[in-house]
Amino acid sequence: MFRRAVEALRSARLRPEIEIDPTRPPQRLAPYAYAVEAAVVDGEEDLADGRLVLLHDPDGHEAWKGTFRLVTLVRAELEPEMAADPLLPEVCWSWLTGALEARGLGYGEASGTVTMAGSHYFGGLADRRPATQIEIRASWTPREGLGGVPDTGAHLAAWCDLLCQIAGLPPAPADQGTGAAGTVSGAGVVSLPQRRGPQQP
Asked: Domain boundaries in the chain?
């Protein structure tokens, strides 16, 4: 079952702005684990990045209410005017749930945090403008499909929708790429505006 779930992740077709690679999964969280790292790339700049971890416990997990669990960390830098919006954490959380629901994916036991951290620069770095980074940490239980295996490829595509949205990219055209994971398209809600480019040191 776990091997089939991993193969579905590997075969998912994603937006061309996404660069994705397998990475070492965390240890001791579950008997089986697989992880990927991804970034939304514009030229030489990473607009957003994150990690998605697939966990599997054949005996089930009481807190998960299932045998599979997806765990994620997503990060992006914000424009100052966006960082000042007091509703932004709630909006970012809705992007995650909205990305899953836009693809018709069943899930349960979703939980997580949305954190904003600001940086101000001084001395030799004083010419840099203040920066704010937003970070989403979340986990959810994907509903199991045929043979007890969830559609992990579709969950990965939805997660990449979230990455693109927090990076400020517009939704992908509805006909942009289909595969086992379904059509790679946006969740149909407002994205962050694109950043003005990398800061100069």
From this structure: 2-167
